[in-house]
TrEMBL record:
<feature type="domain" description="Glycoside hydrolase family 5">
    <location>
        <begin position="27"/>
        <end position="267"/>
    </location>
</feature>
<dbReference type="GO" id="GO:0009251">
    <property type="term" value="P:glucan catabolic process"/>
</dbReference>
<dbReference type="InterPro" id="IPR017853">
    <property type="entry name" value="GH"/>
</dbReference>
<dbReference type="GO" id="GO:0005576">
    <property type="term" value="C:extracellular region"/>
</dbReference>
<dbReference type="GO" id="GO:0008422">
    <property type="term" value="F:beta-glucosidase activity"/>
</dbReference>
<keyword id="KW-0378">Hydrolase</keyword>
<dbReference type="InterPro" id="IPR018087">
    <property type="entry name" value="Glyco_hydro_5_CS"/>
</dbReference>
<dbReference type="InterPro" id="IPR050386">
    <property type="entry name" value="Glycosyl_hydrolase_5"/>
</dbReference>
<dbReference type="GO" id="GO:0009986">
    <property type="term" value="C:cell surface"/>
</dbReference>
<dbReference type="InterPro" id="IPR001547">
    <property type="entry name" value="Glyco_hydro_5"/>
</dbReference>
<keyword id="KW-0326">Glycosidase</keyword>
<protein>
    <recommendedName>
        <fullName>Glycoside hydrolase family 5 domain-containing protein</fullName>
    </recommendedName>
</protein>
<dbReference type="Pfam" id="PF00150">
    <property type="entry name" value="Cellulase"/>
</dbReference>
<comment type="similarity">
    <text>Belongs to the glycosyl hydrolase 5 (cellulase A) family.</text>
</comment>
Length: 409
């Protein structure tokens, strides 16, 4: 949707500013067309058919509460969220609603809706407006007409506090948000983010004797630092497996889910690092090249063009990660579909074979991930790195899939 727009259109805020300064009616038709066509009822039916049980739907504050003069967002997604929840009710899917962007910005990333804006932590007015948005979500989607379809509300996606004062502000916000939701409903789960602080940061926070049905959300990716993106396939899998003890320990204290992850191994997908930013993998990041010498050809695009080696890694990545995350309270895949990056798309993973059917089958890892062969064998040279399994534990799924850009603009 940013194609053909000026270079300064890089997020929801600037996208809205562009259309409000040119032709708002035309702009609204464009975004409304996206909402009407990108995710339709059949997508939810397919999600259910493939064995998934829950969708995570992101929405920005600008579609929930009144906006100020310096917030030229495109509004209107709320009614589409309502429609999606009704579809899920009728189809038999649960929903987590994720407040993906908040006033003043919570992380400075484009996924917050306002790139380079991160003053939310110190702006009491913005925090109160966020709490107002949460109250509206709770009041609307715990109504009996939705039949309990919304099982969780995430207070804010990926907040990024820089110091102790901002962490404390976030903790206070979590407790206040929890209180507001519990004032409306005692059943729906309240989801908090680990805020890039790691799981141990939250040990003992919001204890179960005072706070009930709280979920800790952590996101695991393997491409957003040079050290991670340059790892070979086997090293990536070992890095995922190394997270198992911490996830299990955290889950003993608070329900812990991996609320976003992907099979992708690189940051080659278009716009992943921001519009016009390029990729670390091939050193096209602007303005700071990485000096890595990877080639993005064959690492993104259509899964029909991926090599057997890459497809095999994607399968091992999916099976390994889901097995690990099921040892905690479940996983949510980012995302259901994409325009041109199959390695990120659950739907394409099924089509091209790296997401197994049924989901609990794990043929690429011989049924037991994280059992590495200590010999010189590796995925890179085509030899299987896992030992033959004795048994495999089938665990119930809790939360499974995110739909990218469904309702978020």
């Amino acid at each position: 949707m940013f194609e053909g727009k000026p270079d300064w259109v890089i997020d929801e805020l600037t996208y809205g500013a562009y259309w409000r300064s040119t032709n708002y009616t035309r702009g609204f038709k464009e975004v409304e067309g996206h909402w009407d066509s990108w995710i339709v009822r059949k997508d939810f039916e397919d999600i259910k058919r493939l064995g998934l049980n829950t969708v995570r739907i992101p929405i920005g504050f600008w579609s929930i509460i009144p906006l100020g003069p310096d917030e030229p967002f495109m509004t209107g997604a709320f009614e589409y969220l309502q429609r999606a929840v009704v579809w899920c009710r009728d189809i038999g899917l649960a929903v987590m609603i994720d407040l993906h962007g908040v006033p003043s910005g919570q992380n400075g990333f484009d996924n917050s809706g306002s790139t380079n804006s991160r003053s939310w932590f110190t702006n009491t007015t913005s925090i109160q407006r966020t709490l107002s948005a949460i109250t509206i979500l709770a009041q609307e989607f715990t109504a009996s007409s939705y039949g309990g379809t919304v099982v969780a509300i995430e207070l804010v996606n990926e907040p990024f506090p820089y110091g102790d004062n901002e962490v404390q502000a976030l903790r206070t916000f979590y407790e206040d948000g929890y209180g507001l939701i519990r004032g409306v409903d005692g059943r729906v789960a309240v989801v908090i983010s680990d805020a890039f602080r790691g799981l141990r940061e939250w040990e003992g926070f919001m204890p179960s004797n005072r706070f009930n049905r709280v979920v800790l959300d952590t996101h695991i990716y393997s491409m957003f630092t040079i050290e991670l993106v340059e790892q070979g396939y086997t090293d990536k899998l070992r890095t995922f497996c190394d997270k198992l003890p911490e996830l299990v320990q955290s889950n003993q204290n608070i329900w812990t889910v991996v609320g976003e992850f992907t099979t992708a191994s690189t940051d080659c997908a278009a716009y992943l690092n921001g519009r016009g930013k390029g990729a670390r993998w091939d050193s096209t990041t602007d303005p700071s090249p990485t000096n890595l010498t990877g080639n993005c050809r064959g690492k993104t695009g259509s899964g029909a063009d991926f090599s057997n080696e890459y497809t095999d890694y994607l399968a091992r990545s999916f099976e390994t990660q889901t097995w690990i995350y099921e040892q905690a309270s479940g996983w949510i895949y980012w995302c259901w579909k994409t325009e041109s990056a199959s390695e990120w798309a659950f739907q394409d993973g099924v089509t091209y074979g790296w997401v197994p059917q049924p989901l609990w089958d794990r043929p690429a890892t011989l049924g037991q991930p994280c059992q590495f062969n200590d010999s010189a064998q590796s995925i890179e040279n085509g030899s299987p790195p896992f030992t033959t399994p004795d048994t495999f534990r089938h665990l119930p799924f809790l939360l499974l899939i995110t739909m990218f850009l469904t309702l978020y603009l």
